[in-house]
Model the fold of this input.
Amino acid sequence: ERLGAAACGDPASPAVESAVAELTDGHGVDQVYLAAGGGSNQPVELAARLCRDRGRVVDIGKCRLDLPWNAYYEKELDVRFSRSYGPGRYDPEYEIEGRDYPIGYVRWTERRNLACFLDLVARGRVDVEPLITRTAAFDDAVETYQRLKDGDLKAVAVLFRYPEQVAEDEPSADVPVMTVPAVPGGTSGAPARAARTPVRLAFVGAGNYATSMLLPHLAQRDGVELSTVVTTTALSAANAQRKFGFREATTDLDAVLGDASVDAVFVVTRHSSHAELTRKALLAGKAVFVEKPLALTEDELAGVLAAVEESGNDRLQVGFNRRFAPLLQEARKRFGTRTGPASLRYLVNAGRLDHGSWYLQQGTEGSRFAGEGGHFVDTASWLLGADPVSVYALAPSGNEDLQVVLGYPDGSTATISYVTTGAAGFPKETLDLVADGKVLQLDDFVRTSVYDGRKRWVSSRLPKARDKGQAAELAAFVRAVRTGGPMPVPLGSLVATTTATLAVRAALTGGAAVTLAEAR
Done:
């Protein structure tokens, strides 16, 4: 009654029938819902007395249904059954494969019914608290059900209370564990820039990648001003200034970090300097775009996060551009929502490096995978919609080939084959994602396709060059700086990807899977 019922009463008493007669001028109600269970036929008999002529009785429970023929015949009552939750229940294509019914044909499906109920609860239109008769510890669940069955416990609804903290399975002593650092609180935003005020960018480093893959996308972009380029030698800075139109060229990093007019700093230097330069730029209050890797060691990563905590500045983006590639974006959209665990295979035909390449200086610049592997870990995690929880790695002796297996919370796995011994003419990056009877394929960022068992979608082939997402990534970063909105990729994801990449070395050294444990 407190929840709004016009009348309540024991079925054996005349109170309910009297209330129905008064409310309906003696005609009876339009519909009766049987939400009862047990072996008594009393609910079915009462329903006939409460219903009007040609009324409807809907069974949504599981009670005895010996219909009293005369009572139902005289009123010509319509008896219906409702399977729990609504259309879609017990339909494997709906419940398992996620194929929803068009709303124009089925208004209230199982999903829409549940969503409507949760919406009503959220709005305060449905109050379930008065229904809770008893609260019991979850450990007492079996006993509680038995008491309800035996009739010893009279209750409308019993709420189970779970322990405050469920004990987690601790890894055994011989299983390596690497902690994913906690992300400190930051600003998560910045003031928007005044209208028509350009976003002023400074570049630290102007090597091959910066001049071929980043600066061409920024030099002609409206609303962007290339303010200053910083390099270790004046000549390379002058060359970049002349080619791309930087306002200034210098070798003085501190002067740039102290320039209040600079909005964002791009760190595009050798791998070993990324973490320290990023740390300095964050402490200077700049938004930072750093090419991968963010860090080569756990200590370097901790240093970056310490700078975030000290400054409150979390405006950071790492150059994981593949998740922004248009073909991969479209393929992911067409693949749709995943309901079951997935298997992902990523073949990276990296090839051999030229003799003398600084990428081979592993003592100072880290391994090739430490420098480049974050790209593939990030892409896999983005496609699977989660961060890795385990890393296993194998490497054959005599070459730099590497097999990395990532485990994810829902049981999904991603295998990254990073090989240097493949044929030079074979595509560099191919990817297959398999789940729910569907397959997504990526052919070296030239073409993608999606198979769903009934049809196949194939993208148009890119006419000129591969688009690995650099333009879209830079546009998203500049937009975040201009508007003060969040960075394109959450900091927690950047940290998780970096930690997983670093864990590969630990997995190779220990010869066992590394568990990635979240910091508490």
In short: The CA atoms of residues 11 and 42 lie 8 Å apart. The radius of gyration is 32 Å. The longest helix spans residues 491-510. The mean pLDDT is 90.
